[in-house]
Amino acid sequence: MSQLLAPGQELIEEPLPDGRRVYRSSIALPAERPDILARLGKWAGVAPDRVLLSEPGDGNRCSIGYGDALRRSRAMRQALAGRYGLAKGDCVATLAPAGIDALVLKLACLSGGFVHAALPPFAFRDGVESDATKLFVEAAKPRLIVAPAGHAAIAGMGAVSLGDLARESMGEAAMPSDADASPDDWAAIFFTSGSTGAPKGVPITRGMISSNQSAIAAMWPFVAETPPVLVDWLPWHHVFGGLDNIFKVIWNGGAMHVDVAPSPSTFEASVRVMAEVSPTMHVAVPLGLKLLLDRLENDHAAAAAFTRKLRAIFFAGAGIDAGLWRRLADFRDAHGDFQILSGYGATEAASTITLSPAPLERPGELGHPLPGHRVALVDIDGRSELRVSGPNIAPCYLIEGRRVPLAMDEHGFYRTGDAVVLRQRSDGMPVFGFDGRLAEDFKLSSGVKVRTGPLRAGLMAQCAPLADDIVISGENRDRLVALVFVSATGRDRVDEISTRIAGWNAANPSGSTAIARFDLATAPADRTKGELSDKGQIVQSRYLRNHADLFEALQAGGGQAPKGA
């Protein structure tokens, strides 16, 4: 069995005269970083019939191999150029969900040097020009919009049907090669999820893709030595699924089996697919992990089938609560020979900034910088902001048709807006740990700063597994109030939630940590109103704006005081 992680990984500190702390990985970024299409061509040559991607079909799954993917993408490139007049650098915007035709379109854009822009489906659900869609269209400036068959945008915005485009390109002769490309050429545009503000377009270069995948394989050799097999539902309009995961598969000659978004009603089918294909890696966000554990924790046969060839479960380290972590760790200990890994990233960094150098010991571990990158820790009002420089950083933002600089500091480091701490693991290895989003912090009327991220994490741990999320309010007020999103486990245990919050207050009595009053959410966060990110997590700033009257009522004495307070 191949080695899971590169041995001897160390965090190298480079203290600078101006007081900044700069860190890098001891693992070097490979000098040879071929274009992603060269990697596709390699696998199409040595294993043309190997499944690259499969999708749900009518009763059976449909699949495409590496050889067909290369041939069909070059034929679609010809159709885009010949029938629609696209030239290198032109943008093709798409609303298509993950699948075979969507993959061929993505690869066709790479083949022709077109820029593939992944549009978020919620904003375009009505398929008409509106204030919601204008932001994305003006940023990407597409020459062509492609939508699934029957989508409202086909009539409302003049979009081309992806099914029609796929059929048209079947009659085209495949180009014998791909357009000339350089690492600085734009390959894609993704939009930030909006978890810290309005979404912005982020151009991703071909060099960013190559450096990202080369660095991941250098830190985690198992993804290169054993071609990854993923059962994946993450949306392709988000950089996690639509850039990192699919290109991780192509880079390393693996297979992606597209799954439907997880829900209690669909997860049985997902378990069957996992048993059939035996994933080697499971990439998830908290929502998917909860449903996975709900289904597998008490079904030994299904758990054994899922973990048969599993090497790692991977999630974004900032996004998992303590209760879910304990469940995941218990599942790991009970089933299979796999490890839990995490990472941290941003759309502006082609998805990845840090990765685990060793199996996780606790939630919140972000790991070490990606090879070839440097991370700076800069003091911001008593906390350390993580800033990053390296080949993964995007050239600019796209806003209202203009190129706008990223938030860079005077030393050329991208400012993530996230706070981190440097932690020591039990084995003595230092790693970065998530310490909240700086943009979510606020001050009470007393001027005392509230560290929202650590406060929410602490309360979630205190209330686990009775709460799915907690939103905290109190900016420019005398006290803190909270809205609790109760989990299925906590639905009939409201008094216990109240007692646990009182226990938190007893241990954390200061005005910046104690919760004076709380209430229970009566409805889930609304994704269509920007209250839920693509990762399934509540966007606190947006939720507070949308429900200001609810929190005003809590400040005025609504809800309830924690029992014992």
TrEMBL record:
Alphabetical list of SUPFAM superfamilies matching this protein: Acetyl-CoA synthetase-like
EC class: ligase
EC number assigned by the record: 6.2.1.34
Entry's Gene Ontology molecular function annotations: medium-chain fatty acid-CoA ligase activity; trans-feruloyl-CoA synthase activity
Source organism, top-level taxon: Bacteria
Keywords, comma-separated and alphabetical: Ligase
GO-annotated biological processes: fatty acid metabolic process
Residue span, AMP-dependent synthetase/ligase domain: 43-398
Presence of keyword Manganese: no
PANTHER family reported in the protein's UniProt record: ACYL-COA SYNTHETASE (PTHR43201), ACYL-COA SYNTHETASE FAMILY MEMBER 3 (PTHR43201:SF8)
Protein family per UniProt: Belongs to the ATP-dependent AMP-binding enzyme family.
Protein name: Feruloyl-CoA synthase
